[in-house]
Design a protein that fits this description.
Layout (H helix, E strand, L loop, with lengths): L1 H50 L6 H4 L26 E2 L15 H12 L6 H6 L3 E2 L2 E3 L2 E4 L6 E2 L12 H10 L7 E5 L5 H7 L7 E6 L6 E8 L5 E6 L1 E9 L3 E6 L2 E9 H10 L4 E6 L6
Parallel strand pairs: 2-5, 4-8
Antiparallel strand pairs: 1-10, 3-4, 6-13, 7-10, 7-13, 8-9, 10-11, 11-12
Length: 292
Amino acid sequence: MAKDQRQRSGRKRAERCLILLIFLGAVSGGVFLLRGTLFTKVMKVQKKTAQQPSSSSRVSTFKTVSSASPKKGPEMDGRQPAQPAAKHMISVARLSSKNHLPTGCELVGAMMLVNYFGYPTTTDEIARRTPKSTLLRDGDNVYGMSPNQAFIGDPHLKDGLGCYAPVVTAVVDSYFWEGGKDKAVNLTGTALKTLAQNYIAKDFPVLIWATEDMREPSPGRSWILADTNQSFQWISGEHCLLMIGYDPNKYYFDDPSDPTQIKSYDKSLVEERYRALGKQAVGVCPVSARQA
């Protein structure tokens, strides 16, 4: 009798274990089925989104690459971006710096840039918006601000020096505050090849710093920075140009010092002069554009 009871009890435990295993298997299968369904739905949504045609507006089509990661492509889903054309040129109205701002190539270049994006301005207005600083002598020492902070000298005079990308970025951006559609971006450190692909090929001209006529740079004036007490040396021959095109061998520019023609230089020479001036560049992109 006791033996029969033990056998029946054992069979009941086995049946309960079997039921439990079947239940757990069903739940597990349901979870995997649910995950598979969700995964399939997500993949379908992604595929549908990827197949949707992009808008023709600048806001939705523009892709940028930051100077901190110039090798990152604009696509985030593993697809490679379309290759840019071998040659591309942007038509930009050229302006001269000789009559009004003889040493303000950076400001005249900025004028061409903001005019291109539909914000007309004048030399007087852009000079007014630009912070300026003079060099002051105290005994044997000369003190002044950094060209990253202000235009050194007076752009209206022939002995003015110039300014660097952070100053021009702020000046250009000041024209976009009210409109809210575009913004100026400091692209310093970005390779010229990347600027050509991500800006010029999409009809966005870019200001770059190099030298006049791409001549060899040389040491210029030096002074002590008033805020850090460190010595700073200007690069003689510094020049700012608006990059508007490229082909397999050359880069093309609107030059504020010679508005009569488009200037072109071998890519290797431009890259060398661009490096000598710290690979400084300023561009414009829509406010909603994503930067990698």
